[in-house]
Structures are given as structure tokens and as C-alpha cells.
Design brief:
seven-stranded mixed beta sheet; Rossmann fold; about 35% helix; binds guanosine-5'-diphosphate; alpha/beta; GMP Synthetase, Chain A, domain 3; about 450 residues; globular; six-stranded mixed beta sheet; nucleotide-binding
Length: about 450
């Protein structure tokens, strides 16, 4: 599981600037997907080799008693409770405030690993100006400038070192593709536990022991029609013996972690509610993670023909970035339409794990260019020379050549279409990277 870092501090100290800086490299990947509305509070971050989930808690007033601040404080407390490490941000230019003291007291009592950061420290001589922050009793103060990107990397290193986690292994072992890791994601009440319990109650489904999983592990291994699956415990669900139960508190962090641990995510929507903002955010996390996805609209039994058409239109307009995913209309309660979902899950997994050889990719590239060459940009005409596979789940195709920075998004979409057709890729995102030599 990826570690979780929470950014805490009073309003205006620079938390969202820091958040943006930490999540920017991941942003670039999904920047060109139309219709994606980002959740500005939760993000996947990557710095060097290290990956983590970062939460921006907004403003925090632990002593708030009325109004909107109470709700904010509640959410911040939940975020802090779910975090592995807290980054407490203060303003190096403003100096210490009473609110900073309140927050520090709260964090000290909590006893979580905490890193104290003085933001807006660009151009400051260390020492004298930062000395007062030692008063907070949280140890060393790290000067950073979120706006200028100074000190952010060592801040991340320090925060994650506090957890003594192993670094990501560059040469990852060949993934075990015989077991499909499946997560069911969706907001509360869409029918996740109903669906999972319907599944697990099926006779065709056989539980088996997966090496490395313990009795109270958060996943359930099972086999269906000769295919092995590992069902990952999802946000808002808890396993109780053989049944899953909905728990009270929905957790974005658990949703993110489940998505990241899965190969395929089944995004569950509620036909009676249509596509809500929260659905769109969850869909955004899935897209960002690069996982394969199948969409199921549940409670199909409870809507009439007019409502059905409305839901279909909403999916097209609100989730256009998941166009590559198969769509199913089901009723978990009435056990309708469930079979085809399994077929799509298997297909999405197969697509996500697709192996593409360099000769085949390169031949395809040349055929595509012959069919339609990339446009000249001023003096430059991009030259696409060869391609190789740079990753799985999602498949990444790396194109090598010259002046590739001038390849348009439209042309990339054209290439994507050819690749999807050739390799029969359904249900997985596909990333195309351009590598210009010289
Ligand atoms: P938040 O309310 O804690 O999320 O704070 P924001 O990220 O919205 O930043 C508040 C203000 O501080 C904005 O005007 C930012 O441009 C500014 N700011 C953020 N980081 C820095 C920094 O490193 N240096 C300076 N000088 N200003 C910054
Ligand atoms: P979760 O919070 O996502 O796990 O949702 P639950 O499985 O607890 O379901 C929430 C509510 O929706 C419950 O009252 C279920 O009985 C109901 N529900 C689940 N599936 C269906 C369905 O296919 N049709 C209808 N009409 N109701 C359903």
C-alpha cells in the first residue's frame, strides 16, 4: 500500500501550492483528458522513485466550534487519522500565530510522525528567522518554497524516511498475471456490498488460499470459471467472516489505495442517482492510476425507460475520459446482468497485461505513418522511427524518433486508435510516450 501524507496548517500558508507541486508530474499524464474534473484535495504524488498519496486538508482550526470550520476540522481530523505521516505547514514570512500553536498541540497529542515545514522561505537566511518555530516543540523546521519548488524534495524524503519504507524497486519482478486483482469502487450506497455478497454467495465461486494472505487479510481470493481472482477490500466495506458489510465512514484514501492495488477496477454507479460529482472524482482517480476499468450501473431494476436514457447520456457527458471502458447495466439485488461483467473484467485484464513486441509495434507505426503522416510544424516534420513497450497495466508504448515534441494530440489519438484495434485493447487506458533522440 502506498503511504499517505497529509498536509495540515492554517489557511494561506501554501498547502495547495505544495499539493500541486507534489502531484504535478502525475497531472501531466492526464492533463489532456477532456471532461476530467480533478479533486483538489487528494492526489497521487511521485518524487524520484517514491510514490505516495497526498491529502490537502484545506484550512484547519482545531478549536473551531461553529460554522463551516467545524466541518473542515472534522474532515481534517479524519485525514490526519488516515495519514501515515503529517506535514505541518507554517508561514515563514508571517511567523508564529496562535493558530499554529493550537495545531501543534493537537498534533503533539496525536503522536503521529510529523514534519514541520516553514513555507515561503525563498531568499531567507536560515537560522534567525526560523528559530521561533522551534517553540512549537515539533523538532527541526524545514525551510521550503512551494511556489519556487525549493526544498520540496528533501521535505518528501524526510517525511517518508520517518516511515522507514523500502524504496520502490525499479527492476520489478514480472507480475503474476494469473490472478486478477479486482477492486469494486464506488461511493456509499451504490450497492458495493450487495454486489460482492451476491458474487461470494454464488456456487460457481470457490474460495482458495493465496500464499501470503492471512485470515484477516483485507482481500478475498476466489476462483470463477477457471480464472483466479483476488477481491480487494474497498473503501466503505469491511469483511466479516464470509460477508462484506458497509461501514459508516467512506474513505477516499482507502478508495485510492484499493484502486492502486488492483489490476482491474469495477466502477459501480447507482442508476437512481445518476452520475454525481463524487462518482466523477472516483472515476478520475481510476483514470489517473492507469488501472483497467469496467463500469457497471447498478439498480437498473429501479429506474424507468426515461431515467435509463438519462443515465446513459450522463455517463457520456460526465465521464467521457472512460470511453474505453465497457459499460454494463445490472441489478445486484435481482442478480441481473452479472455474467457479462465477468467477461469484461477478464477482457480488461487481458488488455492491461497485453505484450507488444518491438517488431510488431514498429511495423504498426510505419503502417500508420504511411496511412497518414504527422503534420509538419514550421520547419519540423516529426519522424517516427520505432516503438517499444514501456510498461503494463496500463500498457505504455514508447515511440522513438526526431522532432516528436511536435506530434499533435490528434495524431496521438490516431495512433492510439490503430494500436487498440491491432491488439484488441478494451477496458484499459493506453499511454503513448514520445522520445526524441538528439
Ligand atoms: P493554502 O490556503 O494553505 O492552501 O495556501 P495556498 O497554496 O492557496 O497559498 C496561499 C498564498 O501563498 C498564495 O497567494 C500563494 O501564491 C502563496 N504562496 C504559496 N507558496 C509560496 C511560497 O513558497 N512563497 C511565497 N512567497 N508565496 C507562496
Ligand atoms: P454500498 O454502500 O455501496 O456497499 O451499498 P449497499 O450494498 O449497502 O446498498 C445500498 C442500498 O442499495 C441497499 O439498501 C441495497 O439493498 C440497495 N441496492 C443494492 N443493489 C441494488 C439493486 O440492484 N437494486 C435496487 N433497487 N437496490 C439495490
Amino acid at each position: 500500500m502506498k503511504p499517505v501524507v497529509a498536509l495540515v496548517g492554517r489557511p494561506n500558508v501554501g498547502k495547495s501550492t505544495l499539493f500541486n507541486r507534489m502531484t504535478k508530474s502525475r497531472d501531466a499524464i492526464v492533463a489532456d483528458y477532456a471532461g476530467l474534473t480533478r479533486d483538489r484535495h487528494y492526489g497521487n504524488a511521485r518524487m524520484g522513485k517514491r510514490e505516495f498519496i497526498v491529502i490537502d486538508t484545506g484550512g484547519f482550526e482545531p478549536t473551531a466550534e461553529t460554522g463551516i470550520y467545524v466541518e473542515m476540522a472534522k474532515q481534517t481530523r479524519q485525514a490526519v487519522a488516515e495519514a501515515d505521516v503529517v506535514v505541518f505547514v507554517v508561514d515563514a514570512r508571517d511567523g508564529l500565530s496562535a493558530q499554529d500553536h493550537d495545531i501543534a498541540n493537537y498534533l503533539r497529542k496525536l503522536g503521529k510522525p510529523t514534519v514541520l515545514v516553514a513555507n515561503k522561505a525563498e531568499g531567507m537566511t536560515e537560522g534567525t528567522q526560523l528559530a521561533e518555530f522551534y517553540e512549537l516543540g515539533l523538532g527541526e523546521v524545514l525551510p521550503v518554497s512551494a511556489a519556487h519548488g525549493q526544498g520540496v524534495r528533501s521535505l518528501v524524503e524526510q517525511a517518508l524516511d520517518a516511515l522507514s519504507l523500502p524504496e520502490l524497486d525499479e527492476e520489478e519482478a514480472e507480475p503474476d498475471t494469473s490472478v486478477i486483482k479486482l477492486a469494486v469502487a464506488g461511493r456509499p450506497n451504490v450497492g458495493k456490498s450487495t454486489l460482492i455478497n451476491t458474487w461470494l454467495g454464488e456456487e460457481r465461486l470457490i474460495a482458495f488460499d493465496l500464499p501470503g494472505t492471512t485470515r484477516d487479510a483485507i482481500s478475498v481470493p476466489f476462483e470463477r470459471a477457471g480464472q483466479k481472482y483476488e477481491l480487494i477490500d474497498t473503501a466503505g466495506l469491511r469483511r466479516k467472516g464470509r460477508v462484506f458489510e458497509a461501514i459508516e465512514k467512506f474513505s477516499v484514501v482507502k478508495t485510492l489505495q484499493a484502486i492502486e492495488s488492483a489490476n482491474v477496477v469495477l466502477l459501480l454507479l447507482d442508476a437512481t442517482q445518476g452520475v454525481t460529482d463524487q462518482d466523477a472524482h472516483i472515476a478520475g482517480y481510476i483514470l489517473e492510476s492507469g488501472r483497467a476499468v469496467v463500469i457497471a450501473i447498478n439498480k437498473w431494476d429501479a429506474v424507468d425507460e426515461y431515467e435509463r436514457q438519462q443515465v446513459q447520456r450522463q455517463i457520456e457527458s460526465r465521464l467521457p475520459f472512460l470511453k474505453f471502458a465497457a459499460l454494463h447495466f445490472i441489478s445486484a439485488r435481482k442478480r441481473q446482468g452479472l455474467g457479462p461483467v465477468w467477461a469484461s473484467i477478464a477482457q480488461a485484464h487481458q488488455s492491461a497485461m497485453c505484450k507488444m513486441s518491438t517488431p510488431v509495434l514498429t511495423r504498426l507505426l510505419h503502417e500508420a505513418v504511411q496511412f497518414q503522416a504527422p503534420k509538419r510544424a514550421g520547419m519540423f516534420r516529426p519522424k517516427l522511427r520505432y516503438a517499444h513497450q514501456g510498461g503494463m497495466n496500463p500498457p505504455v508504448v514508447v515511440v522513438h524518433g526526431n522532432s516528436l515534441e511536435h506530434v499533435t494530440d490528434a495524431y496521438k489519438r490516431f495512433l492510439e486508435g490503430r494500436l487498440r484495434k491491432e491488439f484488441n485493447l478494451i477496458g484499459t487506458p493506453l499511454r503513448i510516450e514520445m522520445k526524441t533522440s538528439s
